[in-house]
Design goal:
By secondary structure, this protein is mainly alpha-helical. It folds into 2 domains: 39-126, Orthogonal Bundle (DNA polymerase, domain 1), CATH 1.10.150; 135-369, hpI Integrase, Chain A, CATH 1.10.443.10. 44% of the residues lie in helices and 6% in strands. A 3-stranded antiparallel β-sheet has the order 1-2-3, with no helix packed on it. It has a two-stranded antiparallel ribbon with strand order 4-5. A hairpin with an 8-residue loop joins strand 2 (187-190) and strand 3 (199-202). Helix 7 packs across helix 11 (277-291). It is globular.
Length: 369
């Protein structure tokens, strides 16, 4: 009886595979090695260990990722001064970035090599920072300020008044908490401002009543959130662990809360964030266009105008010591708070007890943000 050729071929193939198959052996496997953290994760850990801000972390990580992709995903440990110089040159020549942006990228790379890779790189000291030009800030007149503020309505109007009347930065205004408003002393406490520093500034008298009325509405909203099982806010640092219930207390609530509630993925709390800064940015830009202001108006323009107008008023109204006095307190329509003498306190000829920078900023403040 003849056997088909295909059957013989298959039997030979199976026998050949069985002959080459290695014998199975049982071995004792040790504990799995801990995976080495990725480079950018190490960067985040180094930044958080030094208590840098979230925006610094986000910016540094973005520049490092851009630097790695620019050099075709080569590891930074394999590169040096020529690669950094080529990257920075490309930013200036091809990207046409400003000198401050170029210096920011260089600072991120210096942090990468010195603090994360821990490399002794003396060539980093030879890298030259780009020279920053000096630009004059955009300053609005008092009439232009009134025109822009007249075109803003609702909560953004309150925030814009604080930007000009108190000289706040955009995020400083958005991150205000209820406990930071001292209506009795006409003061606002700015927590963790630029450079992670606290400072005092004045509460604008023209907006005080409207701000207190706004806080009453925010408190009613907070009570409704508590009844619905929400009412939490994010706390700075480890305060949430130290004071577990502080996140639902009224003093820690945002002055300008967001309209929506979100669920925190770590704690499961139903929280409100502060109003996003882009809401005020869009409102100010649209108001400047409607008011017909032929200048590049942003939220920070109010801070420049605040400093400039204080300088102008101080020059016109010096006090007895020859230093600039409080700004135009004889005008009831002025945005800035006038000095008030409290019980048991001596007269304060220069307004509330504020740092000199906030009450009478130096001339160089016109060029600094």
């Amino acid at each position: 009886m003849l056997v088909p050729w295909t059957t013989v071929s298959l039997s030979y193939a199976v026998a050949f595979r069985e002959a080459r198959a290695p014998a199975l052996a049982v071995r004792e496997v040790g504990p799995a090695a801990t995976p080495k953290p990725r480079l950018l994760d190490r960067v985040r850990e180094a930044i958080r260990a030094r208590h840098y801000s979230r925006r610094t972390e986000k910016t540094y990580v973005a520049w490092m990722r851009r630097y790695i992709f620019f050099h075709a995903k080569r590891h930074p440990a394999e590169m040096g001064a020529p690669e950094i110089t080529r990257f920075l040159t490309s930013l200036a020549v091809d990207g046409k970035v400003a000198a401050s942006t170029q210096n920011q990228a260089l600072s991120a790379l210096l942090f990468l090599y010195r603090e994360v890779l821990l490399q002794e790189v003396p060539w980093l000291d030879d890298l030259v920072y780009a020279k920053r030009p000096h630009h004059l800030p955009v300053v609005l007149t008092r009439e232009e300020i009134r025109a822009v503020l007249g075109q803003i309505h609702g909560v953004p109007r309150l925030m814009a008044f604080l930007l000009y009347g108190a000289g706040l930065r955009l995020l400083e205004c958005a991150c205000l908490r209820v406990k930071d408003i001292d209506a009795g002393r006409n003061q606002i406490v700015v927590r963790a401002g630029k450079g992670n520093k606290d400072r005092l500034t004045m509460l604008p008298a023209a907006i005080k009543v409207d701000l207190l009325r706004h806080l009453d509405g925010v408190r009613d909203q907070h009570q409704r959130d508590l009844q619905a099982g929400a009412g939490w806010v994010e706390l700075p640092g480890a305060l949430a662990r130290k004071y577990p219930n502080a996140g639902r207390e009224w003093p820690w609530q945002w002055v300008f809360p967001a309209t929506r509630i979100y669920v925190d993925r770590l704690t499961g709390h139903r929280r409100r964030h502060h109003l996003h800064e882009s809401v005020l940015q869009r409102a100010v830009r649209a108001a400047a266009l409607r008011a017909g202001i032929a200048k590049r108006v942003s939220c920070h323009t109010f801070r420049h105008s605040f400093a400039t107008h204080l300088l102008d008023d101080g020059q016109r109204h010096p006090d007895s010591s020859g230093t600039p006095g409080p700004p135009r307190c004889q005008h009831h329509h002025d945005l800035h708070a006038c000095p008030q003498q409290g019980p048991g306190r001596r007269p304060q000829p220069r307004g509330p007890s504020l740092p000199r920078y906030d009450t009478h900023p130096p001339r160089t403040s016109r060029r600094r943000s």
